[in-house]
Design goal:
The structure holds two protein chains of two kinds.
Chain A: H1 8-22, H2 28-48, E1 54-62, E2 65-71, H3 73-96, H4 103-122, H5 126-145, H6 151-180, E3 190-191, H7 194-211, H8 219-226, H9 229-255, E4 256-257, H10 263-284, H11 289-309, H12 313-344, H13 360-374, H14 380-395, H15 397-421, H16 438-456, H17 459-470, H18 472-475, H19 484-508, H20 516-519, H21 522-532, H22 538-582, H23 587-608
Parallel strand pairs in A: 3-4
Antiparallel strand pairs in A: 1-2
Chain B: H1 3-16, H2 21-47, H3 68-91, H4 95-117, H5 121-139, H6 145-176, H7 181-190, H8 195-212, H9 220-227, H10 230-255, H11 261-283, H12 288-309, H13 312-343, H14 359-373, H15 379-393, H16 397-421, H17 438-469
Helix pairs in contact in B: 1-2, 1-4, 2-3, 2-4, 3-4, 3-10, 3-13, 3-17, 4-5, 4-10, 5-6, 5-10, 6-8, 6-9, 8-10, 9-10, 9-12, 10-12, 10-13, 11-12, 11-16, 12-13, 12-15, 12-16, 13-14, 13-15, 13-17, 14-16, 14-17, 15-16, 15-17
The chains are: A mainly alpha, B mainly alpha.
């Protein structure tokens, strides 16, 4: 196998994406077949050489910017994961997206996204990575924009937010390249002092905003409602997490020498803790299946950032493990949401309920994934969260408390979601609901099964996939023995969440209303109301400020307009009228003018001598 | 080579007025076309340094001379006379009328050619008067109230100018006993400060300012231009008044009147006032030809302004603008002639939407107005640019600013004209309007082509053609 083979994971999906875009809108099955084939081929290809170590450098633009690709265990791992997820989502979309508009655009964007992701992961040159990274911005915009009518606004919101953070990434890359004297990732090694810290923070903004951390998350809940559902499972739930956390891990492990004591580590952990709590608080009170999930997609990023931010081997392993676990259970959850939407026609929790018996497979998958995200043993989320707790506790009690409180609220909100969506009284609307079709069930079941496997046999992914990433020097002195105290606390918290839910559901009347007492709690009531009115959305705040500036500019513009359009015209016509009035047509008058002129000229000339 | 420029038109008039009237009436137009084309060819030959023997020269002691300024003016005269003849051919009905018109044009041609070639004050005055007399009759050609009124105003003011010029010449004759430019010039320098000489200079200049239609001596101009038949307007606005007023002023300022500061200040002031008054008055006009007449005043203002600046570059700019003005203003008057003959009116409020009906007129008018307003890369832009640069270099920042800002006014009123006449919805009763005849359209096309090509070729022309013009300056 020659080295240039690693171009194929980029080339195959990209070319297929272009082909799909060109195929006639009506021939659905051909498009689906091509997409499936392309993603399948990419998956097989990536699996076959996932054990290899390949460096490929093709001269590109010069100035130290080469088309450099590097395949090693970390990038191979992300490649396989991205390709596998893509393959499953395409399979799912074959049923879900059937007869939806803009199908060729959807598949094309999906394939190009995969190509760009593979490119960004493989890239061993920062500028090349940025090139692929920006390509993702375009497909992101496209995929949201083809959602339901009105999605365009959300697409613009996402485009602006992600675009601004990409700009930060670009500046960070420029600065890092300047400091290190090279753009080749594997050769960069910087310390996080003054300028290095700035470069790190700029690149970090790019990474964590791709992963969807607070405060760059606000487009995700909007997109959950507006964009086609497989998009949510595909980008915010899985591929963007993989990419964002991959980059965060790369910059904090390889490119910058981040140590446990530095203030950047504290900053990262703080961002992580705030992300966990803010997003989960919002998730708790959502009344829509997809919106609720989307806030969790934000909240869980907090654990990964917290884990990596600890700068302890345990935490980093936990964060990375949580990354892959999250991609698994969150995409599974979105897929169940899609199945529910397809079969019942709604994702409004008020209209759902009692469909567990009608859709047993979907329900079981949901339960597994929900247990996993809540950190219930023995599912995969439990183990990764335990590792993060361990590291967080070592760095500071407050981070641990935030994490465990997040777990409590996560569990509470998923109990509410499951209760409201699948259990409880069945409305008449849902009497004839059937189980979803096979192409939709297969991806769910596969992913749910992986959740279980990664949980029960967690040493498999940990030893084979995660630990090699850190390298031997990080692993020295690593103790990963189960911490009994932590496990006990977790279990108690989970039982507490269950009891809380049962009690709240009883008091409030139904599972759907189980979080109402929090929503209407004395202090939180006002905050929630304002949050729902988007008072805290940075995008809307900035938008309002810009609107203020533009209104001011508009007044200035009016004034200038008035000066030109009104004032100048009035002065001109006024002068014109005066001059016209003076031209009476009387020749004697004209002669008089001339003579006055002569007089003036002669006097002027005489005066000068 | 020079005297034929005077003698051939004279000969043409004589022969055409022999018997065989009906034949001669048909021939007249061809003779005119031939004469004007020959004049252009002669200028080209002269410019290339072709100095053939002048066999008739020895019978005359007129003292003709020819420098680069004269060549530029002769070219303009040739082009505009050709245009006038083409337009007159198309627009003036009746063989007899047309024949009379052609004869008058030849007279005016003699007058103008003489004005630009002669080298003494008295002969200059004579030929200015020859041009003026032809002009009076051309303005009154239609013999209606307007035409007679316009002609009358011109005669009255022209007479004032005549009196002043004659008085001035007699003073100079009294002082030096000679009226040649050289003698008069040295006299003016010699008797600097003498009130009589100053008076002579002042009133001669005022006489020329009246002829050129500079504010406040311009009272006759709008009425005369708008009352004249379309073809005569082309001749008057394009070249006749420019030759008798502006050319003479350039010539006398540079070679006779001592180049003193207060003279320059008067010219600068008169130029700036002309630019502004002409432009503001033009904005208020609803008559196509009247608007063009006021526009003429405004454009002449630029030439006077540059003349007042007095540097070599400014005078090159003035001469270049004079040439450009004779092209694009003739073109605008040709277009107004096309509109007038085809639609029967020049009232812009009754016109509208003629652009699709008269594509050639529309396109050429657009070129002309853009050139007038000084939009690159047309010829008008370059001459205005030279003038503004020269003013700025000489420290006359206020005047330069006026010149630039007045371009906006120029654009405003010409755009207004273009919109009212050619753009927008077709006005009532114009459904059957057609493009003007080939005489008018070909004249318009030639003029537009000159404007465009001069504009585009300017970068090559600047050093090879424009700079050498200043060689007549001592």
């Amino acid at each position: 196998m020659t080295d240039s083979f690693i171009l194929l994971p980029i080339a195959i999906p990209f070319i297929a994406g272009i082909v799909v875009l060109l195929i006639n809108q009506r021939i659905q099955s051909v498009k689906e077949a091509i997409t499936l084939l392309a993603t399948g081929a990419t998956l097989v290809l990536t699996i076959t050489f996932c054990k290899e170590n390949i460096n490929l450098t093709i001269p590109w633009t010069g100035f130290g910017i080469d088309f450099a690709l590097r395949l090693y265990h970390f990038s191979a791992f992300i490649l396989v994961a991205a390709s596998a997820f893509s393959f499953l989502f395409v399979l799912y979309s074959c049923s879900f997206m059937r007869n939806k508009p803009y199908l060729n655009q959807f598949y094309s964007y999906l394939l190009i996204t995969l190509a760009m992701t593979n490119g960004a992961v493989l890239a061993d040159n920062l500028v090349l990575m940025l090139f692929f990274w920006e390509g993702l911005l375009l497909t992101l915009f496209g995929m949201i924009a083809i959602g339901r009518p009105g999605a365009f606004k959300t697409a613009i919101k996402a485009f602006i937010i992600v675009g601004i953070s990409d700009l930060c990434l670009m500046m960070g890359i420029g600065l890092a390249g300047h400091l290190a004297g090279t753009f080749t990732i594997s050769k960069i090694s910087l310390s996080v002092d003054s300028l290095g810290a700035l470069a790190f923070i700029l690149m970090m903004i790019g990474a964590i905003s791709k992963a969807g951390s607070v405060p760059f998350h606000t487009w995700i809940p909007d997109a959950a409602v507006d964009a086609p559902l497989p998009f949510m499972a595909f980008l915010p739930a899985s591929l963007e997490k993989l990419l964002g956390i991959y980059l965060l891990a790369r910059i904090s492990l390889d490119m910058f020498k981040l140590t446990a004591g530095s203030w950047i580590s504290i900053l990262l952990m703080t961002i992580g803790a705030i992300t966990i709590l803010l997003a989960v608080m919002m998730a708790l009170v959502q009344k829509d299946y997809k919106r609720l999930l989307s806030y969790h997609a934000v909240s869980q990023v907090g654990y990964m950032i917290l884990g990596i931010g600890t700068c302890l081997p345990v935490g980093i392993i936990g964060g990375l493990f949580h990354m892959i676990n999250h991609a698994l259970y969150k995409s599974c959850l979105f897929l169940t949401g899609g199945a529910v939407e397809k079969q019942t026609g709604t994702t409004d929790l008020a209209k759902l309920g009692g469909i567990a018996m009608k859709m047993p497979v979907t329900f079981v998958c949901f339960v597994i994934a929900a247990a996993s995200i809540s950190g219930v043993p023995p599912f995969n989320g439990f183990f990764s969260k335990e590792l993060v707790y361990d590291a967080a506790l070592e760095r500071g009690m407050v981070f641990y408390l935030a994490a465990i409180l997040g777990t409590f609220l996560t569990a509470a909100s998923f109990l509410k979601l499951g209760h409201a969506a699948f259990l409880g009284k069945r409305s008449e609307h849902n009497e004839n609901v059937k189980e979803a079709s096979l192409p939709m069930l297969v991806p769910m079941v596969v992913i749910a099964a992986v959740c279980v496997v990664f949980g029960v046999w967690n040493y498999l992914p940990l030893d084979n996939l995660i630990k090699p990433i850190l390298g031997a020097e990080h692993l020295e002195g690593l103790h990963m023995a189960p911490n009994t105290m932590l496990i006990t606390v977790t279990v108690i918290v989970l039982i507490g969440a269950l009891l809380h839910h049962l009690f709240a559901a009883k008091v409030n009347g139904s599972g759907y209303k189980a979080s109402d007492h929090i929503r209407h709690a004395p202090f939180l009531e006002g905050i929630y109301t304002k949050a729902e009115k988007r008072w805290f959305d940075p995008y809307d705040i900035v938008l309002k400020i810009i609107q203020g500036i533009s209104r001011f500019g508009w007044w200035i513009d009016r004034a200038i307009d008035w000066l030109y359009d009104d004032f100048a015209v009035r002065v001109t016509t006024g002068l014109s009228c005066v001059i016209k009035l003076a031209h009476t047509g009387s020749y004697s008058m004209y002669v008089v003018w001339s003579l006055i002129g002569v007089l003036f000229v002669v006097i002027m000339l005489m005066k000068s001598f | 080579m020079l005297s034929p420029l005077l003698l051939l038109p004279l000969l043409a008039i004589l022969i055409l007025n022999l018997p065989f009237r009906s034949l001669m009436q048909k021939l007249a137009v061809w003779v005119g076309v031939g004469l004007s084309l020959w004049q252009i060819v002669a200028v080209v030959l002269l410019a290339m340094g072709h100095k053939s023997a002048d066999p008739w020269g020895k019978f005359f002691t007129l003292g003709l001379s020819c420098d680069n300024l004269t060549l530029v003016l002769l070219t303009s005269i040739g082009i505009v006379v050709l245009t006038t003849i083409l337009v007159g051919w198309q627009t003036i009905g009746g063989d007899k009328q047309r024949f009379g018109f052609m004869n008058l044009v030849f007279v005016a041609m003699i007058g103008m050619n003489g004005t630009v070639m002669l080298t003494d004050l008295f002969s200059l005055y004579i030929f200015i008067e020859v041009t003026a007399v032809a002009s009076f009759i051309l303005i009154a050609f239609q013999r209606d109230t307007n035409a007679l009124e316009g002609a009358f105003k011109y005669i009255i003011l022209s007479a004032t100018a005549t009196v002043m010029m004659l008085l001035s010449i007699s003073i100079i004759l009294l002082v030096v006993g000679d009226t040649s430019f050289a003698a008069a010039g040295s006299a003016v320098r010699q008797f600097q400060g003498n009130p009589l000489v100053i008076l002579a200079v002042g009133i001669f200049m005022c006489g020329l300012l009246i002829k050129g239609g500079v504010v406040p001596f311009h009272g006759w101009l709008p009425a005369a231009y708008s009352a004249a038949p379309a073809a005569a307007s082309v001749l008057l606005a394009g070249i006749a008044t420019k030759t008798s007023g502006i050319y003479a002023l350039i010539r006398l300022t540079t070679s006779v009147f001592a180049n003193n500061e207060s003279l320059n200040n008067i010219l600068l002031l008169a130029g700036a006032i002309s630019i502004l008054v002409g432009a503001f008055a033009a904005i208020g006009q609803s008559d196509f030809k009247k608007m063009l007449a006021y526009s003429s005043i405004s454009q002449v203002g630029y030439i006077i302004l540059a003349l007042g600046c007095g540097t070599n570059l400014a005078i090159i700019g003035a001469i270049f603008h004079l040439f450009n003005h004779s092209i694009f203003k003739s073109l605008l008057f040709v277009n107004s002639a096309a509109v007038e003959t085809q639609s029967g009116t020049t009232d812009m409020n009754k016109l509208g939407g003629l652009g699709t009906k008269m594509p050639v007129t529309n396109a050429t008018s657009m070129i002309a107005f853009l050139s007038t307003a000084g939009v690159p890369p047309l010829a008008g832009f370059w001459s205005k640019l030279i003038i503004v640069v020269a003013l700025w270099q000489n420290g006359l920042h206020a005047y330069a600013t006026i010149a630039v800002l007045a371009s906006v006014l120029t654009l405003a009123y010409l755009l207004l004209m273009q919109r009212k006449v050619f753009f927008g919805k077709l006005a009532d009763g114009l459904a059957n309007v057609k493009e003007a005849g080939w005489g008018i359209t070909s004249a318009a096309t030639i003029l537009a082509a000159i404007t465009v090509s001069v504009g585009i070729l300017f970068p090559w022309m600047f050093n090879s053609v424009l700079i050498p013009i200043s060689s007549f300056l001592k």
